[in-house]
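Hey, weird one. I pasted the Gfo/Idh/MocA family oxidoreductase sequence into the form twice and got a warning about non-standard characters only the second time. First submission, copied straight from the form history:
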Amino acid sequence: MGLLRVGVIGLGMMGRHHTRVVRELDGVELVAVADAYGDPHGAAGNLPLCRSADELIEHGIDMAVCAVPTGLHEEVGLALARAGVHTMVEKPIAATLEGGEKLAEAFESAGLVGAVGHIERFNPALQSVRARVGNGDLGDVYQITTRRQGPFPARVADVGVVKDLGTHDIDLTAWLAQSHYISVSAQTSTRSGRAHEDMVTASCQLSNGVITSHLVNWLSPMKERLTVVTGEKGAFVADTLTADLTFYENGTIDTEWEAISNFRGVSEGNVTRFAMTKREPLKVEHEAFRDAVLGKRNDAVSMREGLNTLRVAEAMIESASVGQVQILSR
């Protein structure tokens, strides 16, 4: 089989990185790129620079990466589906549930691979957590907590922090726990004068009983990406900015100091920081998408999974709006 012909549409902050990674990927050939507003980061190089999805499709592509603004995911994705092009859409899958449903149905009915770029699943620290949890290293999982905060990214204008950043945490949490959300309680605020929320805190529950909390904002002067998985035997702490993973083990040595023992509940055990191979998550994500197209593996994030994540995000926004817990289907 020859090289898979790939096109990238959307050459903004994420699009330029997708373009770079596709160029480095074995088994594929980047044949053209597209952006209605040109090429602000010089990602195209000597490749044809198209102005629309239709023009990109004319280059005979087998696969595409859709990195246009969220509000355009539905339009561009449907055009690629009609043309028979396997497509990975940047997260979130779409701006609305209706749009996400249309995309999922279009790719499924055409027998095409439709994927969503939830890149955190491919972070080496989180992949290690999932494997270790699956092996029983933590025992029963009790809670998953995430913190994702930092300054406002100028690239985002059409959605708020829940759909842009919060969807990372929704997806990775359900994936780590191998369960889905059944209840959502959230509060949001808009402090920066923009049209959408820029801060959210949410408390949720998954169908397997795991409780979760998520703190996400665009208002912090420091950048933080932290996931804590607490369970029967201790806690894993993953820093996805550095791909560092630390395990805080519950202690097995009884303390003779009764006051401290009663106060702490769980004693402190060994602390282990794991060494691991740290590959770029975006490249691993592209490998999963390529291999899904080739029928070799199925760990790319499906559009149905992306749609479920968007459904939880919408529930967070609705919960904050009406001041009530939102119950999702079990």
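That's the output from the first submission. The warning seems to come from a hidden character in my clipboard, not from the data itself. The chain has a mean pLDDT of 94.
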